[in-house]
Model the fold of this input.
Amino acid sequence: MKVIAVMPAYREESRIVAAILGIQSLVDQVVVVDDGSGDGTVEAAKTTDAVVLTHSLNRGQGAALKTGTLAALKLGADIIVHVDADGQHDPNSIPVLLEPIQQGKADVVFGSRFLGVPSEGMPMLRRILLQGGRVFSQLVLGIPRHMTDPQSGLRAMTAQAARQIDFHQDRMAHCSEILRLVTRSDLRWVE
Done:
């Protein structure tokens, strides 16, 4: 199975190379989508083996993920992994994320920064905002209560699931939209 990681990036010049190199050995290919950064993110990313795409204007993380996901499908991905460019995701999470898909148990796997792990080092304001997002997702969008991290940028999906998840939110609302589309479909998913 060909695994392609999609990494949206905005002003990540100082962190993008480490983020790419951290996951490169765990996937077959990395696609970086620079979302109109205007700094040296593109140039830094091009020093690696990643495929680097650019938006001339900042359109939002959701738009960058959409561009990268469509590119990964064109490159022949069997599995697509979404991972943030700021290095917040542990690269060792990727094999764990892929396992349910590779074993035929899930079509989509949502990563979590909180599932069985204390949120150490996360600023209190960010924890409060994420908890607010979780409550909003449950009450307004009907996302299952057991989801611990509905705003996580770490997820994996089969190519077939990626084609079915037709999300349109360009900015941060894409996380909630993807969750809503997946949990209301016939796709098999786990967190």
Remarks:
- Helices lie at 16-24, 41-45, 61-74, 93-102, 124-139, 159-164, 174-183.
- Residues 3 and 28 are 5 Å apart (CA to CA).
